């Protein structure tokens, strides 16, 4: 019984230490802000999920995110501070101003144009009646039938 209790306590201790080593000590606000940022080391992963081995930037960014999230500034001001420090490439989503607005608009424009082209193409071929085959000339028809009959007669004289 005593060994069982010690085993349970040891398992709980290991589990507790494992959770402590996880390092997920970010507040919900810090996580929300960090999810909107990209690590600037070049790995193109989010600042909160960068797993680049030996990343020289992510630990500093995460500390800065935690520090700024603890301040009373709004999320927009915190993000703006990161943009001023690292540039617009730090944002996970492009802004909705200026040239970056195209990143939001162009996929929908492309989808609309593609659907329009498909509809025009389908309607065009749906409306076109198939051209009737030209009626064979009576003289040509008679000549072909005579050639067929002659060919059949050569192969089977009984016919």
Short précis:
This protein has 159 residues and is mostly helical. It has helices at 2-21, 28-34, 58-70, 75-86, 101-127, 138-155.
Outline the structure in words:
With 159 residues, this protein is an all-alpha fold. Among the domains are: 72 residues, no CATH class; 32 residues. The protein is 61% helix and 0% strand. The protein is elongated and about 110 Å long. The model has no long low-confidence stretch (mean pLDDT 80).
SSE blueprint:
Layout: H1 2-21, H2 28-34, H3 58-70, H4 75-86, H5 101-127, H6 138-155
List segments where confidence is low: pLDDT < 50 over at least 5 consecutive residues. Answer: none
Strand content: under 5%
DSSP strand tally:
0
Nearest-angstrom radius of gyration? 38 Å
Major β-sheet annotation: none
Order of helices and strands: HHHHHH
């Amino acid at each position: 019984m005593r060994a069982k209790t010690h085993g349970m306590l040891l398992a709980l201790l290991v589990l507790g230490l494992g959770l402590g080593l996880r390092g997920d000590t970010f507040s919900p606000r810090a996580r929300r802000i960090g999810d909107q940022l990209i690590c600037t080391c070049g790995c193109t992963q989010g600042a909160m999920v960068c797993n680049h081995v030996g990343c020289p930037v992510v630990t500093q960014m995460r500390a800065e995110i935690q520090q700024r999230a603890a301040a009373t500034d709004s999320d927009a001001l915190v993000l703006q501070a990161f943009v001023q420090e690292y540039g617009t490439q730090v944002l996970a989503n492009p802004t909705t101003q200026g040239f970056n607005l195209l990143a939001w608009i162009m996929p929908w424009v492309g989808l609309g144009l593609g659907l329009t082209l498909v509809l025009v193409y389908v309607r065009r071929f749906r409306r076109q009646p198939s051209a009737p085959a030209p009626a064979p000339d009576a003289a040509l028809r008679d000549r072909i039938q005579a050639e067929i009959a002659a060919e059949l007669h050569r192969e089977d004289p009984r016919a």
